[in-house]
Design a protein that fits this description.
- It is a single chain.
- A 7-stranded mixed beta sheet has the order 1-7-6-2-5-3-4, sandwiched between helices.
- By secondary structure, the chain is an alpha/beta fold.
- The N terminus is likely disordered.
- α1 packs antiparallel against α3, α2 runs antiparallel to α3 and α6 packs parallel to α7.
- It is about 45% helix and about 15% strand.
- GO terms for molecular function: 1-acylglycerol-3-phosphate O-acyltransferase activity.
- Its EC number is 2.3.1.51.
- Belongs to the 1-acyl-sn-glycerol-3-phosphate acyltransferase family.
- It holds the Pfam family Acyltransferase.
Length: about 240
Amino acid sequence: MFRLIRTVGIIIGYAALATTKLQHMKNQKERLPTVHVQDTYITMMAKKWAGRILDSADVTVEVTGHNVNDDKPVLFISNHEGNFDIPVLVHAIDKPFGFVSKIEVKDIPFLDEWMMQLNCIYLDRSNRRSSLQMIKDGVASLKEGHNLLIFPEGHRSKGQGLQEFKAGGLKIAKSAGVDIVPVAISGTAALMEKYNSKRMVPGHVKVQLLDPVPATVFNDHSLDEVGQLVRARIDEALRS
């Protein structure tokens, strides 16, 4: 329980501290030459935040695969095990990225402004129009040169195995004309979800960055087929 309280304190406290630096960072960002460089600069603070969370929870992260860090925008598609997925992925992936988050996160103190700077997108699962707007916002973000990460399962699996993928999010990649980078993450559910979020335990997490699926895949395959292809690659990686 103490580890959980300490980690939550770090999440909120570090976000509050970082917010005091936000205006300066925004001013500095505007002087940088490209979207990729600007996003990389802003993400430095997010990576420090993620590292402190993982250290406080005594979590180690193993990253395998090819971490591409060029300026070509991509859509990351990852399975979704637990609450620690975001800090682990921010720590593990070199490319800066925004992510699709449930609308409830907007109410967490200090985080909303940082979510905006990281080019995150909110989704209200109870509102169908919100899903359509999420797709539009995701396409626009990618076309502007930002990277985006989605969890097509929609909900945390909590270590109960890979769930079915919702193909709707793949419309983002198809409409934006970007490559898809599948990501397999394992071990985060064992840190908290197995104990119903009442306590945390130290652990080891593995992140596998898989070979990109080129944007041209949509020339010959439907959204459902691409979704099945990406899911199969992630499933194979999780079983290896």
